[in-house]
Please model this.
Amino acid sequence: MICPIVIDWGTTSFRAYRLSDQGKVLEKRASANGILAVKDGQFAAMLLDQIGDWLANDTTAPVLMSGMIGSRQGWQEIDYVTGKPGLSEIATGMARVSLADGRAVWIAPGYSCRNADGQIDVMRGEETQILGASAGRDGDQIYCLPGTHSKWVSVTGQRITGFTTFMTGEVFDVLCRYSILGKLMTEEGRSEEEAQRWFDDGVQKAKAGMPLLSGFFGVRARALFSEIPEAHTKDYLSGLLIGSEIRDAFKDKDRLVTLIGSGHLIGLYGRVIENFGGTVELSDENLAAAGLYQLACHLEGQGQFCE
Amino acid sequence: MICPIVIDWGTTSFRAYRLSDQGKVLEKRASANGILAVKDGQFAAMLLDQIGDWLANDTTAPVLMSGMIGSRQGWQEIDYVTGKPGLSEIATGMARVSLADGRAVWIAPGYSCRNADGQIDVMRGEETQILGASAGRDGDQIYCLPGTHSKWVSVTGQRITGFTTFMTGEVFDVLCRYSILGKLMTEEGRSEEEAQRWFDDGVQKAKAGMPLLSGFFGVRARALFSEIPEAHTKDYLSGLLIGSEIRDAFKDKDRLVTLIGSGHLIGLYGRVIENFGGTVELSDENLAAAGLYQLACHLEGQGQFCE
Model:
């Protein structure tokens, strides 16, 4: 059986995993060498720089990648799969690039669909994480991947049926950094306990239907009148934004949502989903590795690594 | 009768008017010396620099100002009036500062209220423009003042009954400049005719209820698939934002809306309000001057300039 080397190569991060033939993580290596850090299309050189020793030590290990490495700004642009893809369709959508010695490297496709608003939407990398997360599960599932561009993904069995992206994290970031709201924000006098209270207050406003564009201005107006301490304007804005996303994304309010990711943001999203009446479970780590392992097994089963 | 000198002194602009005793504009002087251009609180010096000759030529003319000059960052912070103020309440809210020679300069207050969402909201300068715009009018009126922070103001007779601010212009600006959407935007190949079409397309999405946070990401996804030409992503985003504002602000869709302002933006707002079923009229120019003239007459009638 195969022991694949798999890589989750995103915009700002590179995460490589050496897997056992059962898909267990034997070794993990992570760096900030995302595709933005690669100059002049030198992706092969960067790969050797990061895990050249792994490749040399096991010259027959299949190498698979997913993430923004398959985008126009990556190693090679791989077409998005469409429809309601499962393991087989995503595996079929993979494309090969070659190292200087002729060794093949497989890159997963992205996935695109018309989202809940009838609008074209795209993901790259999340489709592979979803394969990892939904392995062995039955029935309808909802996944939420919070972040710069949060995604809400519907899955049936191990088949993605649709998703919608929300630019929540990026809007928060540009407003804090570059808008008039940022001028109010200070860390001085901020407390964790109060932070939660003001975050919840923002969520409550969103839940009550506050439009975002007037809600944003309200951050300033309320701070002017000391209705929000300046140290907590950021928490309030965060609640308003995440609350708005979840209000619009989470239609069946009594459902279980599987959160994919890690860190502080997962805690905030879990809090809001529960506030809206949902229940939450956290996914395992290394989902990209788990999904790429399944893709490797599928390609192996088709004899793709024997050429 | 008095021939007042009135000044609309905002964040980034200074506009002074020498008025006749009937309120006619005899002379107008405008510069980019808004309050941000004034260093170390030297507002009196800047005023003399801008209109020292007017002040010297008519030493008894009352001098009145409105706008951000009455804010914490301005000459002196003047308390907001509240409730449902008309001419008398706004005049009563004015405060005086003095020039070195003891001459009084009157500054209009801002206005604050709880807006349609129950949120505290603030304006500074618009209350005076509304006095100018609503002079001699009866019954319920709606005013829209598009801009960085657009305002929708309800008026009955000459009395302001409430308003809501939308951060539309500023959100557009920070997204174009600093978000991933800005990277797509180009002027190359842009045509005015197509611009209108894509603007309308964005409006249509907002009208259909598209959430802003997913709509923003859609600008990128649709451009990736060439569903929107990159040269028109900015027009589409503008339509999505202005459409969202008007969807949320303009509740009684068959009403007459008086647009206050000038330039390209007024045309866009008029187009959208009509798209939503409203009718539009444009206000006169120099509304701040007209409002300040009324305040001057009111104070004159009280004998405030005789001390």
Chain B has two domains: 5-137+286-301, 167-276. The domain at 5-137+286-301 of chain B is CATH 3.30.420.300 (Nucleotidyltransferase; domain 5). The two ends of chain B are 16 Å apart (CA to CA). The first strand of chain B starts at residue 5 and ends at 9.
